[in-house]
Write a structure and sequence with these properties.
single chain, about 120 residues, mainly alpha, globular
Amino acid sequence: MKAEDHRIRAERIERSAALLTDDDWEIKLEAAMLAGTHWANYALHCHGVSTEKEDIVHTSMCVVNTLRKYSIVEKELLAQLDEIEEMRPIFVRGDAEGGREAGARALVLLAAIGQRARSAPTPYA
């Protein structure tokens, strides 16, 4: 997918997530994961370290060497996305206490991811 398409989708998901309530923590986590992944792909494409055919789906599914390459330019962003990804199964598919706090944390992380991605260089042609 093209970098600009990732940006458009991430922003659309962010707008939708802004409408959620504290009781929608599962959806907040899902939205943060999806939008955060779009932002990560946007940033990686903008830096030119991944192509339109190399979109990440989950940080946990990346080959170690590929994740290392991506981390050279976006270590903090990928760490924030990984934190969301680690919370997701515990609170969305599990029954752990603290779902509201996890949902709120996921949106804080998403905001940081989005801010970082927006500061990436202009997408290459």
